[in-house]
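Read as chain and fold; for instance:
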Amino acid sequence: MRQIQAGLALAYRDLLKFLRDPVRLASTFVFPFAFIGILGGSFQASFGRESGMDFMAFVFTGVLAQTLFQSSAMGIVSLIEDRENDFSQEVFVAPISRYTIILGKIAGESLVALAQGLGILAFALILRVDLSWGQALALLPATLVVCLFGGAFGVLILGTLSSQRAANQIFPFIMLPQFFTAGVFNRIDHLPPALDLLSRISPMRYAVDLTRGVFYADRADAASAVLVSPAANLALMTLLFGIFLVVGTARFVRRETEG
């Protein structure tokens, strides 16, 4: 029971930190709004009529999945900063399991990412994305899966980094290429072989495609936007989630024990 209470306390702490940080709140919502409005709107104006594709909806689903995945992963990696911060050192000397810290952090960052997702859904309505209430409700469980998947990926990265400086240098290098290899803004169904290989090993690809698969479930243009079925993406993400979580947590616990 003490371990559960400690995990819930860590999750609540992360959500509270997010809600009390106006700069982070603003940046969290401004960038998705700009991506959907500017990129989606410009793509729609330039290519929408010729291709018959709704680029506003395409970019919206990509940005939604990318934001949730990246937010959850970055939140987990921030454990390195917590470990180096005098205020947070008490967490690491407390009589709780390192596994509890990891699970509590995943839960907390998933709550933070879900709050961001609700804001993006509101932006979609403001920007007049073709989004029904049924689609919005169907996206909720999909976004939760994406948050947890991003958190597990963050745990994997966390287990390989030793300092906040290394995280600041390496994490953008890991995440930014996935914006394009995962198909956040662009179609990736006919990539050259080398880029196709990079796309297939990008975890964000499956988060984006799962979100699009749910959104486009009953739409006529699903074939041009979705790569594989949501069930196939969910099965692969479940497998990768387990691998990321087990390997990353084991490396993190070993590093903490040795330290």
Q: What stands out?
A: The chain has a mean pLDDT of 81. The longest helix spans residues 22-51. The CA atoms of residues 155 and 249 lie 6 Å apart. Residues 2-258 form one domain.
